[in-house]
Amino acid sequence: MKNYFLKLVFLMAVIVFTGLTSDSNAQLKIGFIDSQVILEQLPDAKKVTAELEEYRNKFLDTLRAMAVQFKEKDSIFAVEYQTAQQQVESGAITSNDDLKALNDRMNGMRMEIVQLEEQLKNYDQYVQNAVYERRQELSKPLYEKINKAIEDLAKEMKYSYIFDKAAGNPLYGDKEFDVTFKVMDKLK
Question: Rounded to the nearest 5°, which phi and psi values hold at 173?
């Protein structure tokens, strides 16, 4: 809510300041786009999405295998633990040496599961970071192209400001000032 209020105050200040400092014949012309619509319809954006999905899928097989291994070890541990508990309760294991050996085995299995879980979390985090970095790398030229089209359109049609509806900037946007599809035309 605070961020929304700050945007509103900033927008009002820009409009007031621009109105006070421009000469009386100049008009403030504002347009807006919906970047989400542009990204959904732009073929280059679809290519980026497909390439990202392919890149992400390279990691998924390893991630799934690690998850399966973790679940298998965890299931084996649960069965082994239950069996050990039954052996102790039934009196099948009575000597301190046997109890210590059983306890050591259970602790070893538990530590292995903890390590596998940590490896799984670390790899998952690595995948998320790698995909994020790849997204930034692939998206940069796309966003530069879109921003260039917006800038060219703004200069050509003499817009003072163009806001992005998808980013939540405009408080109101009359369809008359929506230049989303004009930007799309520039991108063709």
Answer: -145, 105
The number of distinct structural domains making up the chain is 1
Domain hosting 35: range is: 2-187
DSSP string, 157-171: HT-SEEEEGGGT--S
Residue with tokens 């009575």: 94
Beta bridge partners, 33, equal 164
Position 159, amino acid: Y
Query: What CATH number is associated with residue 83?
Result: 3.30.910.20
Report residue 34: phi and psi, to 5°. -120, 95
**Residue-wise pLDDT tens digits, 71-95:** 999 999 999 999 999 998 898 888 8
∠ CA 6-9-10, rounded to 5°: 85
Give the pair of three-digit tokens for residue 103.
């306890």
**178 neighbors 34 (Cβ within 8 angstroms):** yes
Pairing of strands 30-33, 161-164: parallel
Each residue's pLDDT tens digit, 116-136: 999 999 999 999 999 999 999
Q: pLDDT below 50 — which residues of the chain?
A: 1-2, 4-6, 8-9, 12-13, 16-17, 20-24, 171-172
What whole-number distance in Å separates Cα of residue 111 and Cα of residue 102?
14
